[in-house]
TrEMBL record:
PANTHER family: OS05G0256350 PROTEIN (PTHR32166:SF74), OSJNBA0013A04.12 PROTEIN (PTHR32166). Signal peptide: none annotated. Keywords: Metal-binding, Zinc, Zinc-finger. The lineage of its organism: Eukaryota, Viridiplantae, Streptophyta, Embryophyta, Tracheophyta. GO terms for molecular function: DNA binding; zinc ion binding. InterPro entries: DUF659, RNaseH-like_sf, Znf_BED. Residues 10-67 form the BED-type domain. It comes from Rubroshorea leprosula. Pfam families: DUF659 (PF04937). The keyword Metal-binding applies. This is BED-type domain-containing protein. Residues 1-20 are annotated as: Disordered.
């Protein structure tokens, strides 16, 4: 029996304006005011009949478009209130928050940096080079002031409250930053450049110089200043080399193909203080065989110093695997580590080949391609989604596929509304073969069910990909835990129904055993205090502490002891 509150709330439903209850003794039998069809599912079923293609109700042929829009708007409003921002009944398990990797997540790191960079350093009201009421002049003491790098770093670390700024100072800043803004616009500089430390150093240095700074000329930028910056970079490289010898380092190779179809490898060196780019090599003649690739890798290891290199990180191609075996045979204490981001992307690629997911991806790609290739369809879509796009780019091709699939699902109601609107049905595309196929896909219940399945399977793995591909924190000590939590998240998403995810787990395990189950990953997990002291049984875990891993740990320990003694 309905309560008083539910009755009053039902009367506010706009569906009652366009439907009638003929017999009060049969509250579920509702008659449409436009076509006189009686439905037996209450007011919600009657609204589905008038809204069109929501659920399995037949579509009312006489309902006006403005009534459709009113009912859809009411439906979307109620849906958003219930979900409080979640996409339908499907909520992706955010396992990375449970991992608690570090003190903050990648996005939070960027947010803190952005907020901190907006704070001004507290300064006195007088003194050479300081902000004051008088003119800004330079004197001999300016030579001894702190460097812009130091000031910017202090500003980042400072947690002091921002001082109140006079209106005159605000106006002066507004005029100044407008010139900077105009320079960005005229030169077509990406806004993200403003987050670079070098940009902040430049602004700070100009401010501390004072008025009448002569900007660098075209010739200065092109020749003498470029040579000077090259020399400064080489000096910095030499300083890094001394630390590589002291702490050890990792070589990372990043392969890509340029527009001329040349295979380029960027070589970078990483150690606890950070990563430094060393050189870029045209490796077109080396990529054909593992033997040739071994020659290239071996030459670079010798250049950095065999005693300095702890591991070499490459992708997982068969030529790299062979080259790594030859390299490890020559240098006994050297580790070869496959790129985890590449491994996870290969797992996603394997999952994308499963019949039901492959079919879903093909339909989604067709649908998105159709909308974006027809301006009128794209305009209608953007109107209904309030200019929210369906395509979102990720760190890899399959991450992009997942993110796009997720956006399509979040716009499910708006897309259905689009393909059942009068504007769409009156367009020329509605009668074309591709337009009919797009409409069929949107109104196909199985398509949306399979999207949910794909998101549940791929979501946690994209989370792992995001973790290992970030440049803020080293992920070596978290890979074991991240993969375990990803599998747990998939299992939880299907309520432990093994039939729904066993094929996915077999694909994950195949890549994990052959490529990701690496001694350094086990060592990183074992030596991570967050996991070791949280679960002391880790010391007896056979998977982590098998004889092979112990041997590698001992070798690493001997190497570490040698480093400390030398």
């Amino acid at each position: 029996m309905e309560t008083t509150s539910s009755r009053s709330s039902n009367k506010k439903d706009p569906g009652w304006k366009y439907n009638s209850l003929k017999d009060p003794s049969k509250p579920n039998y509702i008659t449409c005011n436009f076509c006189n069809k009686t439905t037996t599912g209450g007011i919600n079923r009657a609204k589905q009949h008038q809204m069109g293609h929501l659920g399995n109700a037949t579509v009312c042929p006489k309902v006006p478009q403005e009534v459709k829009e009113e009912l859809w708007n009411y439906y979307n409003e109620k849906k958003s209130q219930k979900s409080t921002g979640s996409s339908g009944s499907f909520q992706m398990f955010n396992y990375l928050e449970d991992c608690r990797i570090g003190d903050d997540d990648l996005d939070e790191v960027e947010l803190v940096e952005f907020n901190a960079s907006g704070k001004r350093l507290l300064t006195a009201k007088s003194g050479a080079g300081m902000q004051g009421s008088g003119k800004k002049t330079k004197g001999p003491m300016d030579l001894f002031l702190r460097k812009p790098e130091t000031i910017v770093q202090k500003r980042k670390e400072s947690k002091m409250r921002q001082m109140s700024i006079k209106d005159s100072d605000l106006e002066a800043r507004a005029r100044t930053v407008q010139y900077i803004t105009r320079f960005f616009y005229q030169a077509g500089i990406p806004f993200n450049v403003s987050r670079l430390d070098s940009f902040k150093y430049m602004v700070e240095a100009i401010g501390r110089y004072g008025p009448n700074l002569k900007p660098p000329s075209y010739h200065e930028l092109r020749v003498p200043l470029l040579k000077k910056e090259l020399q400064l970079t080489n000096d910095m490289l030499e300083n890094h080399k001394k630390k590589w010898a002291k702490y050890g380092c990792s070589i990372m190779s990043d392969g890509w193909t340029n527009r001329r179809q040349r295979s380029i490898i960027n070589f970078l060196v990483n150690y606890p203080a950070g990563t430094m780019f060393v050189e870029s090599v045209d490796a077109s003649s080396y990529m054909k065989t593992g033997d040739r690739l071994y020659e290239l890798l071996d030459a670079f290891v010798e250049r950095i110093g065999e005693k300095n290199v702890i591991q070499v990180v490459t992708n997982n191609g068969s030529n790299y695997v062979l080259a790594s075996k030859l390299l490890q045979a020559k240098i006994k204490n050297l580790f070869w580590t496959p790129c985890v981001a590449h491994c996870v992307d290969l797992i996603l690629e394997d999952i994308g080949k499963l019949p039901n997911i492959k079919r879903t991806l093909e339909r989604a790609i067709f649908l998105v391609g159709f909308i974006y290739n027809h301006t009128s369809a794209l305009s209608l879509m953007r109107t209904l989604t309030k200019k929210k796009e369906l395509v979102r780019y990720g760190v890899t091709r399959f991450a992009t596929t997942y993110l796009t699939l997720e956006r399509v699902y979040k716009q499910k109601l708006n897309l259905r509304k689009m393909f059942t609107s009068d504007e769409w049905m009156k367009s020329k595309f509605y009668k074309e073969a591709k337009g009919k196929r797009a409409t069929d896909v949107i109104l196909m219940p199985s398509f949306w069910n399979e999207i949910v399945y794909a998101l549940k399977v791929m979501g946690p793995l994209v989370g792992v990909l995001r973790l290992v591909d970030n440049e803020k924190k080293p992920a070596m000590g978290y890979i074991y835990e991240a993969m375990d939590r990803a599998k747990e998240a998939i299992q939880k998403a299907f309520d432990g129904n093994e039939e729904k995810y066993k094929n996915v787990f077999s694909l994950i395990d195949k890549r994990w055993e052959n490529q990701l189950h690496h001694p350094l990953h086990a060592a990183g997990h074992f030596l991570n205090p967050q996991f070791f002291y949280n679960d002391l049984s880790i010391a007896t875990n056979k998977e982590i502490c098998d004889p092979g891993v112990k041997e590698h740990l001992l070798n690493g320990g001997v190497r570490m002891e040698w480093k400390l003694q030398s």
